[in-house]
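hey so i finally got around to running the thing on that chain from the lab meeting. sorry it took forever, my laptop kept dying and i had to restart like 3 times. anyway pasting the input first so we r on the same page abt which one it is
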Amino acid sequence: MSADTGARGQDRQGEVPVVVPGPKGVPLLGSLPEFGKDPLAFFERLRDQGSVVSWNFGGKASLFIADPDLVGELLREVESTFDQPDLGVAFRAVLGDGVTVARGRDWRRKRSLVQPSVRPKQVKPYAATMASCAVDTADGWRDGQRIDIKREMAALTQRIAVRTIFGTDAEGDVEAIGRAMDIAQREIGAEFSGIGAVLPDWVPTPGRRRVKKAAAVIDREVGRVVAAHREDGERPDLLSRLLTAQDETGARLSEEEIRDETVTLYIGGHETTSSTLVWAWYLLARNSRVRDALDEELDRVLGDREPGFDDFARLPYAQAVVQETLRLYPILWLLTGIAKEGASLGGLPVAPGTRVWTSQWAVHRDPRWYGDAEVFRPERWLEGVEESIPEYAWFPFGGGPRVCIGARFATVEAVLILAVLGRRYDLDIDPGEIRPMTTLTLQPDRDMLATVRARGGGA
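ok and heres what got predicted. didnt touch it at all, straight out
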């Protein structure tokens, strides 16, 4: 029997949720200072108070929900009774009005144009690129070498993103884009949880100035690559698919829309997978039993060859390692929506304008759904935990109509990279706890330094 236990949603059916009063906070700002100090711990405290907790975010009425059934209802009702919120100046400066932030008819149009480029059947042709780039990284490592895992994974996933989106390594200043993205990600996270979240758009803060400079670099480099594609004609990459995509009227994406969707794909194909791999290596280094089980599967399935797309299905334990990493260190750490007229959750009316929050970090670590919730135990995904927990007790890619369209791409990429590098090497990470930092994704709060150790069977 699985060590994970939990009650299905039917035990709570018919019961209207009770709103538990949360922290009162301070005048004007409410609980924003406490939230900004440590958002993850703050959400865990709210989760432990009840399934629906009221709180005040910068003077605005808010609800935090931790019940997976209510989370699913929120995600399914975005675009109907809940609105996508304004995610701030920093977020808009980088992602513009792309499919991630667009609303209503505009969102439906953009999603219909972008989704065909990254639907599951399109992932297979890119698997060879994923594995090839990972092999290049592995070939560059040496036994005993000291590396910064975050830097190595960022460089690797960035190379994959550039090849799959732009079709080449050479176009544009890849390093400039990478530096600009790092700045943008930090400033987006800072604005989510700091005073910038409640300041008017016109207030010029140092962080907003930094993110605007970073966005200008991104604009310049993406514009250069798009111009080259238009001159060279169609290619077998994601950008070419965007350039030729047409809606039901025959209209194509504008230049500004191409820029926004290209940046969205870049972040989805680079930042998210890189973050997942960083945390996977951290967890593997701290759990020798799991590392041994992964080694056994890689040796048995791959032997002395590199993996391809078909090996994804043959590596269930590697998949479970990625799933468990996404449970403990999810790509997205919060989701939020604004109630419209007629909004409700579980039969509980939600006043228009109320901001409803949930957090993958808090829900994924809820002991109601997972035995030993804080423990890294990939086996739970092979023992049928998904059949014993509510649907939205695990939602690293969001859910509902706005579920991440690149989820399959990111999962296959993470598993193949883990297989290529893990077949050859172990990474001995320097001792000491590394804590997550809430940027656009969860990043380590310091450099993650490690010593590369060649494995005898696969090096």
